[in-house]
Amino acid sequence: MSLKLPARIQKPRKHGITAIMDLGLPLGYLEGYLKDYNQFIDIAKFGIGSAYIVPFLKEKVKLYKDFGIEVCFGGTLFEKFFNQTSIDRYCDYLVSFGVDWIEVSAGTLSIDINHRIEIIGSVREKYRHFTVVGEVGSKSPKAADLMTDTQWIDEIKRLKDAGCAYVIIEARATGTGGIFQEDGTLRLNIFDAIVESYDSKDLIFEAPRHVNQSYFINRFGANVNLGNIVPNEILIVESLRQGLRSETFFNTLA
Predict the structure, then answer these.
(1) If you average pLDDT over every residue of the chain, what do you get?
(2) Above 70 in pLDDT, residue 1?
(3) Residue 235, number of CB atoms within 10 A of its CB
(4) What pLDDT score was predicted for residue 254?
(5) Cα gap 155→138, rounded to integer Å
(6) How far apart are CA 209 and CA 214, in angstroms?
(7) What's the gap between Cα 162 and its chain centre?
(8) In the prediction, which pLDDT does 90 show?
(9) How high is the pLDDT of residue 157?
(10) How far apart are CA 87 and CA 187, in angstroms?
(11) CATH no. of 18-248
(12) Which residues pair with 227 in a beta bridge?
């Protein structure tokens, strides 16, 4: 007899996405890891600008894509190129590694939303094969404290209207920035305002901690989009999605 579990959308998925944060997985390890767990992973993000210095980057990108996993170099590297060179050079850099997802963010730099919208428009015009994702929220808790729910909602709307496939809700790799306060507490009033205004299928919630993951799964179901997942915890996250851990044991939402 089979267990009755929440129905998981199968790959290739438009929602129910799991995006891992690759911060130094060795190439040899990665191949074995993906052979076992590729069915649970949709996007691999090279976080904190690490894509610029990681060894065997081209080989790693190819390996991910061979297993049907999209690759993104994240927002920090985008902001570094924005600050020091140009967005065109960053796009050419992505193309040189066969990466066709680009994240436009303002997590470290204060890049006005109007400027980000201009960048998105330019990228979509010049690099039509790119999938563009936007991010809302600052990595700095102090800056995040100043963002009102109206600002969050407005930025999400403008990013979606500009053609972003998804809007990422910032949380940092630690779950202590963006939509979360410095102590890891969810900014619930802002979060509630966001999800009352937008379909969660259009959003990717950064959720590096189990308490974050279980909250989002219990609220939206097994097929909520989750980002910044630690690679060696991918089986824990999928178990949470399918009600196989105590925190989501009684959740039947698909």
Answers:
(1) 96
(2) no
(3) 12
(4) 84
(5) 12
(6) 9
(7) 18
(8) 98
(9) 97
(10) 32
(11) 3.20.20.70
(12) 206
Sequential DSSP letters for 160-219? HHTT-SEEEE--TTTT-STTB-TTS-B-HHHHHHHHHHS-GGGEEEE--SHHHHHHHHHH
d(CA 88, CA 92): 6
Domain boundaries defined on the chain:
18-248
Per the document, the length of the chain is 254
CB atoms within 10 A of CB 179: 24
**Which amino acid, one-letter code, is at 171?**
A
Q: Which amino acid is at 248?
A: T
Structure confidence by residue, pLDDT tens digits, 22-74: 999 999 999 999 999 999 999 999 999 999 999 999 999 999 999 999 999 99
103 contacts 78 by C-beta, under 8 angstroms: yes
**Per-residue tokens: 252:** 């039947």
The distance in angstroms from the start CA to the end CA of the chain is 20
- The C-alpha R_g of the chain, in whole angstroms, comes to 17
